[in-house]
Design a protein that fits this description.
314 residues; MetI-like fold; 2 domains; 12 helices
Length: 314
């Protein structure tokens, strides 16, 4: 019969390596369980990020495939409609096969489209820069300075209700038939979308941002430049994106009167000589340029403001 050992001796023997029990953790030894948990968390996070990247790639591929398929279906319907619908004259509504021949000739064989594209892009760019710059400046000031907002609110909202196309005769009277009138019209059209979006973005800044800036000793102008404008940038980009479409609408309206070059002039001249195929070529270039500008702003919005990705992917 064994003599019972003291309890302390039994516990010490159970944790003795010589007795086959687990060893007491030494001082300074790595926490094995914590390291294992951290590795599991890292593994889970890595797998989650990889799955998210795969889903984004799959979504982009699916969007590209469906977009290309939509364009092909549209072209197919366009090609078939003039040939099967009774009463349609293919000279007045040419199918894509006829338009493609004129497109190739004007783009590559003769290259006569490029002076018109260059003139339109130059006017649109200058008008957009002037209008967008003024829109951002006025939007920031009216969004932060209450007196200025109350003074300018009726005037700006009243002018915003006037269509830019209605200003065409007045711009010609004031600035003549040259490029100045067209740039002024485009600037007018681009100003209001940028102004209203910037104004809303600056006006609706969370009060926490402003209080934090005041706590750190920021003055009025420092708060305006370093807090208000950066916080409103997503709204500014949304306004700029809207202004690009407006600029091209006003561009065509401005070039229909008193222009000698430009896509709007090309479309108007083709209308006078009943060249509908040339009109379609001008419309295709306008659509392609507008789409490229819109996608550029969408990419910039997603690139610099990832949290605003829902708007950037539209």
């Amino acid at each position: 019969m064994k003599t019972p050992q003291p309890l302390v001796h039994s516990v010490a023997s159970a944790f003795s390596p010589l007795a086959g029990g687990p060893a007491w953790p030494r001082e300074g030894s790595p926490p094995v369980r914590e390291d294992a948990a951290a590795q599991r968390r890292q593994r889970i996070e890595h797998d989650f990020q990889a799955e998210q990247r795969q889903q984004r790639r799959s979504g982009r591929r699916r969007q590209t495939v469906l977009g290309v398929l939509g364009v092909l279906l549209f072209l197919l319907a366009w090609e078939i409609a003039p040939r099967v619908v009774p009463g349609i004259n293919t000279k007045m509504f040419p199918p894509p096969s006829q338009v493609w021949g004129v497109f190739w000739e004007m783009t590559y064989t003769k290259g006569e489209i490029w002076p018109h594209v260059g003139a339109s892009l130059q006017r649109a760019l200058w008008g957009f820069i002037v209008g967008a710059g003024l829109g951002v400046a006025v939007g920031v000031l009216t969004g932060r300075v209450t007196v200025l907002r109350q003074l300018s609110d009726p005037v700006l909202h009243g002018l915003r209700a006037i269509p830019a196309i209605a200003i065409v005769p007045l711009a010609i009277v004031w600035f003549g038939l040259g490029d100045v009138s067209k740039v002024a019209l485009i600037a007018w059209g681009a100003f209001f979308p940028v102004w209203i979006n910037t104004f809303i973005g600056v006006r609706d800044i969370p009060a926490t941002y402003l209080r934090s800036a005041a706590t750190l000793g920021a003055g009025r102008w420092a708060t305006l430049a370093q807090v208000a404008l950066p916080a409103a940038l997503p709204f500014v980009f949304a306004g700029l994106r809207h202004a690009t479409a407006t600029a091209f609408v006003v561009l065509v309206a401005a070039e229909l009167v008193g222009a000698e070059e430009g896509l709007g002039f090309l479309i108007s001249f083709a209308h006078l000589v009943f060249r509908v195929d040339v009109m379609f070529v001008g419309l295709l270039y306008l659509g392609a340029i507008g789409f490229a500008a819109d996608q550029l702003f969408a990419w910039a919005l997603h690139r610099f403001f990832p949290w605003y990705g829902a708007e950037a992917r539209r």
